[in-house]
Amino acid sequence: MSEIRRDRLHNQYVIIAPERLHRPDLYPKGISSHFREYTNKTDKPPLASRCPFCEGNESLTPPEIFAIRDNEANAPHWKTRVVPNLYKAVQVELEDKSRRNGMFESIPGVGAHEVLIDSTCHDCGIEGLDAQSIENWLRSIIIRIDDLKNDHRLVHFSIFKNVGASAGATQAHPHTQILALPIMPQSELTFLERNLQYYRRHGRGKVEDVLENELTCKERIVEELGSFVAFCPFASAFPFEVMIAPKRNIKSLEECSRDELGELALLLRHLFQKLKQQLGEFDYNLFFRLPPLNSNFENEPYMDYLHKNYRFTIRITPRIYRLGGFEIATGMAINPVSPEECASLLNSKEI
Fold first, then answer.
1. Fold classification of 3-346 (topology level)
2. Distance in Å from the first CA to the final CA of the chain
3. pLDDT digit string (tens) for 224-235?
4. Count of Cβ atoms closer than 10 Å to residue 77 Cβ
5. Region 87-98: what's the mean pLDDT?
6. Torsion sign over Cα 277, 279, 284, 289
7. Angle value at C-alpha 210, between 253 and 299, nearest 5 degrees
8. Going edge to edge, which strands form the sheet with 284-289?
9. pTM of the entire structure?
10. Domain ranges of the chain
11. Which strands form 3-7's sheet, in the order they lie side by side?
12. How many angstroms separate the CA atoms of 174 and 119, rounded?
């Protein structure tokens, strides 16, 4: 059973999730045989023909939670599928009651951990999908957000893609992970607090002003499409890092109109085509920054201001270089390629 523990030294939460040990292809080749035995990991690689996320192999996943399809559940001929994560970090069945042992505090690993299978195509990255397929992916995320909001214990949403071994992926078939948690990560609380302070001084949110500055400067803009702008952030932590933000105050993905969702889908396709032109096949992480799902004692001071000062963002971080000791020890990034150079290269060819 998973558990959420509080790190008193760094004022952060840590999820202890033993079930995650058994994910396929989790360990590098040099890991000790003793530890492999401890985790009950086999050395047999999964057969490509038995990919659990491929169409026709629906029986290899838990029963689906949601799908875009025109036929019965858990059968072929779907466009997207959402299933429980087999190696879940948290689970909705647990009771949300904290435990204390002196200064050590924890709660059971309450939450939702789901896998969204992006499409039926095993080898298609975002750049290889048509705009309608990407829109189906976005619509599936929206539907899961709306559903999980109904569990009022859940307050924080983490939606991300790990693509390639350097980005932490353990399945080749393109997919997205959805985690909903009963606690707010410290980094999110810090952002909400600083964003509120900024709004009280300027009457605007931070993302709004960052975007305005990028549009004025134009040095790091990669593409504008309809209601959205893609740019390489001024203080990019990774080479070819790209952020997408809406031009108006859209606090969460589910507030996009149908037209805006189509624009966002097309922009994502263009971006990944441009990145692939420059980088070839590359590993990356993609994640959404979204406002709290529900109110609790941690985020309550910020909830009334979200519609005024919060804009959702999407960040794409290519994993070209490995993190070293300095980055891990300090939390500071060393980026060897300037964002201005990255934006110029991404704009050097038309899609």
1. HIT family, subunit A (3.30.428)
2. 48
3. 999 999 999 999
4. 12
5. 84
6. negative
7. 55
8. 66-69, 78-84, 112-117, 175-181, 156-163, 284-289, 313-318, 242-246, 228-231, 221-225
9. 0.89
10. 3-346
11. 12-16, 3-7, 104-108, 99-101
12. 7
